[in-house]
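User: Sequence recovery, please. Input:
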């Protein structure tokens, strides 16, 4: 399901034996080989395939194997962490309490933990080479306001709670991977940062990830974002979006005695009607949404203000710029129309402006990137298949800056994201956790125990 054009998917290519003998020139490859050697092989024994060189992998294999075993035996522990974290409310911009709990959990795993000024929690696992870092991140925030009942309920194999999957699953996996590596004493070649970041949802506008990428940019080799549950896909393409607010203001007045004065709501309506007739291409897929409209004080007053919030998305950022221009022109025309039709212009005119209230840049991971190769190897090792997707996640930020990044689910099944009926089913979560671990170590590399 990788898409024939995007990834050559020859079995032999990711098979431990053959891959390890291709070239042992880099630490990265050695690490991937070692990790794969640690995995129970499925039906991929290729007759006559050369065996992995023992000296390079055996020592490493013991630790990685032990980490994978920890995952198999401790999925209940990970689920308990998930429930505990999900029950602590954490709307965007109010993540503090949950952040403190995650910081304590990461600290228990031997990481050196600190919080930045935005509230991002960062746990550092120092690698043999500290010149490059790999960031494993899960967002802390939810879309649910304070006061939402976040108590988890069990229903058969399911756990029900708002935020349990998005992003309780990602946060629990972040802590679980740190624990598996700690218990198994896995030492990475390159430093790994375990981050629980703020501000992913809604008008959080990816502020947490922006700050992390800014802080580590010079050393940042790759970013793996854990978001939600499903492991049937990998987000490698960042969907660009822009959120704008139109604000029209005027003098306001009485509906009867001041009739004929320019009316901001009329102007917004005139502009909006023009805008919704704008043509958008189906390829690259481009969308717009008039999401919120507000203004006025009462039914018998000419309002002094009207606001309209618009969301624009496209597979191609040039289309977003084109739509923004269209919105600007339509609103200017709407205001002009209203002024032209006003019977009484003696007591003021309309003003208007367009505010940018959110922007998520687009980007795309190179098909031959080391990160995608590591994920493909992990999928192969755990017997998973993933399709490439375009989506709007924390990975937008690094991808837009040309830094390798993916967003993946953390295992198990979930549904009803962003609703009060959200649910999670832990069954099979170990597959997702192993997929994360193998991908992470495939990028960071592992230091063999003997050479420490
Ligand atoms: Zn999420």
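Assistant: Recovered sequence (452 residues):
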């Amino acid at each position: 399901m990788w898409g024939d054009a995007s990834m050559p998917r020859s079995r032999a290519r990711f098979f431990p034996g053959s891959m390890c003998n291709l070239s042992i020139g880099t630490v990265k490859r050695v690490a991937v080989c070692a990790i794969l050697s640690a995995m129970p092989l499925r039906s991929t024994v290729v007759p006559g395939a050369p065996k992995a060189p023992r000296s390079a992998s055996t020592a490493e294999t013991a630790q990685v194997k032990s980490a994978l075993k920890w995952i198999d035996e401790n999925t209940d522990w990970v689920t308990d962490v998930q429930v505990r974290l999900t029950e602590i409310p954490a709307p965007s911009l109010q993540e503090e309490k949950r952040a403190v709990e995650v910081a304590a959990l990461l600290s228990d795993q031997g990481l050196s933990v600190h919080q930045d000024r935005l509230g991002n929690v960062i746990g550092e696992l120092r690698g043999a080479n500290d010149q490059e870092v790999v960031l494993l991140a899960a967002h802390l925030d939810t879309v649910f306001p304070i006061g939402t009942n976040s108590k988890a309920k069990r229903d058969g194999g399911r756990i029900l709670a708002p935020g349990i999957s998005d992003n309780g699953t990602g946060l629990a996996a972040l802590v679980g991977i740190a624990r598996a590596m700690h218990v198994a004493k896995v030492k990475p070649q390159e430093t790994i940062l375990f981050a629980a970041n703020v501000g992913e949802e809604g008008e959080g506008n990816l502020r947490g990830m922006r700050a992390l990428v800014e802080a580590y940019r010079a050393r940042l080799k790759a970013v793996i974002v854990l978001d939600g549950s499903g492991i049937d896909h990998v987000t490698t393409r960042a969907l660009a979006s822009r959120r704008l607010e139109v604000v029209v203001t005027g003098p306001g007045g009485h509906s009867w005695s001041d009739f004929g004065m320019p009316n901001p709501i009329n102007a917004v309506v005139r502009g909006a009607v023009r805008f919704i007739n704008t043509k958008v291409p189906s390829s690259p897929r481009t969308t717009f949404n008039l999401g919120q409209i507000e203004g006025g004080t009462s039914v018998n007053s000419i309002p002094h203000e009207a606001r309209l919030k618009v969301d624009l998305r496209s597979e191609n950022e040039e289309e977003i710029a084109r739509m923004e221009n269209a919105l600007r022109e339509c609103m200017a025309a709407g205001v002009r129309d209203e002024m032209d039709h006003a019977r009484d212009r003696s007591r003021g005119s309309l003003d208007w402006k367009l505010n940018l209230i959110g922007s998520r840049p687009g980007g795309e991971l190179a098909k031959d990137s080391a990160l995608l190769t590591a994920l493909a190897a992990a999928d192969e090792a755990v017997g998973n298949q993933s399709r490439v997707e375009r989506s709007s996640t924390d990975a937008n930020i690094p991808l837009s800056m040309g830094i390798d990044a993916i967003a993946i689910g953390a295992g198990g099944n979930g549904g009803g994201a962003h609703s009060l009926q959200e649910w999670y089913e832990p069954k099979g979560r170990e597959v997702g956790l192993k997929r994360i671990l193998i991908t992470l170590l495939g990028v960071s590399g592992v230091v063999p125990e003997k050479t420490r």
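Residues 332 and 353 are 9 Å apart (CA to CA).
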